[in-house]
Amino acid sequence: MTDFLQFNGISKGYPGVQALSDISFSVRKGAVHGLMGENGAGKSTLIRLLSGDQSADAGEIRIDGQPQHYCSVRDAFQAGVIVIHQELQLVPELSVAENLWLGRFPGKGGVINSRTLIETVRQKLAEIGIDVDPSTKVGQLSIGERQMVEIAKAVMLDARVIALDEPTSSLSSRESEILFALIAKLKAKGTIILYVSHRLDEIFRLCDSLTVLRDGKLAAHHPDIGQVTRDQIISEMVGREISNIWGYKPREAGAVRLKVRDLSGSKLPVPISFDVRAGEILGFFGLIGAGRSEMTRLVYGADSRRSGTVEVDGVKVAPDSPPQSIRSGMVLCPEDRKHDGIVQGRSIEENIAISSRRHFSPFGILSPRKEADLADTFIARLKVRTPSRKQDIINLSGGNQQKVILGRWLSEQGVKLLIIDEPTRGIDVGAKSEIYEILYDLAAGGMAIVVISSELPEVMGITDRIMVMCQGRVAADIPRTEFDERRILAAALPDTSPVAAAQS
């Protein structure tokens, strides 16, 4: 097959940073092409240029031999290019059919033909194997179903190139399999799929070819992914060998720091109890819907308790009050960094200092110098990659955003307990190892850490103990010396979990 999509000498800069430098590679028609790189490597910038959201400073994009001169996302649509972002672009209040026809409703004289609208969508969904009722409101669909609707929209627009940005980051295993089957159908039709992911298993399973970016430059281009190894890709991404990404560091645990007894709530009706010791990293693992995040919100006070107590160093924490939890020394890095973690539209400096201002703002008067010093301290300590503390946090990679959130809470006085939900979701290999190093250092200093993760290799790699949840209950409590992948998965699966046996 001939090269259908070409990037020729693409460069793009922003104030203080060169995001892309002379990027050139091509993709065959009907290929699934992987795009990998550390956070901040330039993947998102390249996708923005492809989508028409921004323009390159130099170079050109060619599709089927024709140079593309985008001025808008609409121009990219008309050229047959559609990007499906992690933050899906659907209108929750509208139906599936209305979302798919948005901006080009069938009808005459301004009158929409609803029957044509729904039946056309029903037929198109059936053709591509998507089992969703066209009349259902998008807000009632799961994340996986919404993603299928986004892809269906691309198909209905006769997209020749579809870029998927971390498409499985919020999907269950079943939803991921449906997505993979749909990708295979699109590939068979000759559609190019540009697949952006940090998950090597998916890259090797789906992709025909691969491009690796590093620091805004082309680190490698592999026309045949069958000729490359995992270790080679990781080395190309980070520019160094990472023999053990987890880097686990054993340590002695101290006295009980967090004590949870008979805790329950509306979304976690069965009472749960557990302890975490000073210097211990406790992992919570379970499938989607197991109750891990619900448990976290109850402990932190973000959701209302029905029963139970939470103690930090023997002192009870008032229920339903995150501010009281913070005052007790408990802090939370949430699962959804973008919506619940960072303060969008604000600088790195402001995001770090926002929780600590009361400590150095006498009489309510802010101290810009102290804020700047605090930000500089944690930017250096946590190795946040940024040209300036004044940079808008939304422009940082996921890994660097996570570091800023950690910096915010570590700047808080008297932190004793860190709860971190999905610590490395959407974060590249190199940044993952840096996040783990931060957690190990905090634990070595006596902090108790609770890690909630849906990635079993991660939770096995970095924790001292794993509590497995299934259907809102604790199914197993396993020390590191007894970690076994099959045992953990068996405890997490409803069909084989001790929880299921106890209920039968």
UniProtKB/TrEMBL annotation:
Signal peptide: none annotated. Residues 5-240, 250-496 form the ABC transporter domain. One of its GO terms (molecular function) is ATP hydrolysis activity. It is a peripheral membrane protein. It comes from the Bacteria. GO terms for cellular component: plasma membrane. Its EC number is 3.6.3.17. Belongs to the ABC transporter superfamily. This is L-arabinose ABC transporter ATP-binding protein AraG. It comes from Metarhizobium album.
